[in-house]
From TrEMBL:
InterPro entries: Cell_Proc_Reg/RNA_Proc, FHA_dom, SMAD_FHA_dom_sf. This is FHA domain-containing protein. PANTHER family: NUCLEAR INHIBITOR OF PROTEIN PHOSPHATASE-1. It comes from Caenimonas aquaedulcis. It comes from the Bacteria.
């Protein structure tokens, strides 16, 4: 059965098996696959399945485009096994499988837990008008920041939480060190500075 494996900076965030004739991807909550990020349009693209394994990708006139192998998708296109789709910093690998996986009856997303069960994480704002505010991290991927200024994505996977620089002119820092292009694992009491706002990461 065809499947999609989505990641941000090498951190897997979603694993979806395609069983519907049409599977939509976008920022709006009514999509089959939801990426809550400003680089993703409300309805960004659609995956159409024909027969048992042929999957076509079509961009739905998105603002930032959908890319395969560095080329913008301008018309409906048949996906090949192993191809990687790029939407902003999101990477979605397409894999073709002929066998139906057991236990899946509809398009589903993989549950992402920490070792020994779910971990509870939050950021506490240390300065500014929101000082003292605690923001829980509850999604597989949570974005923080101001579009165009500085945006990071915090991803939750089995072995912990990771932060990755997404976009913006101002490079965020973690414990005083600028974030690079690769995702960095967060530890409890790390301090993230984002567009002048300092936030303490807490993990329990």
């Amino acid at each position: 059965m065809p499947q999609l494996i989505a990641s941000v900076e090498g951190v897997e965030i979603k694993h979806v098996y395609l069983q519907k004739d049409r599977t939509t991807l976008g920022r709006n909550a009514d999509n089959d696959i939801v990426f809550d990020n400003m680089v993703v349009s409300g309805r960004h693209c659609v995956f159409e399945m024909h027969g048992l394994a042929d999957v076509y990708l079509e961009d739905l006139r998105s603002t930032n485009g959908t890319y395969i192998n560095g080329q913008m998708v301008k018309e409906r296109r048949l996906l090949r096994d192993g191809e990687v789709i790029a939407i902003g910093n999101f990477r979605i690998q397409y894999l073709q499988e002929s066998e139906r996986p057991s236990g899946f009856s509809q398009t589903t997303a993989m549950r992402i837990d920490g070792p020994g069960g779910p971990m509870q994480a939050a950021f506490k704002v240390l300065n500014g008008s929101s000082e003292g505010l605690e923001v829980p991290v509850v999604k597989a991927v949570t974005t923080f920041g101001k579009p165009g200024v500085a945006v990071v994505a915090v991803s939750h996977r089995r072995d912990g939480y990771y932060v990755a620089y997404m976009e913006g002119a101002t490079r965020p820092t973690l414990n005083g060190q600028p974030l690079g292009e690769k995702a960095v694992q967060l530890s409890s009491h790390d301090v993230l500075e984002l567009a002048g706002t300092r936030m303490l990461f807490r993990l329990e």
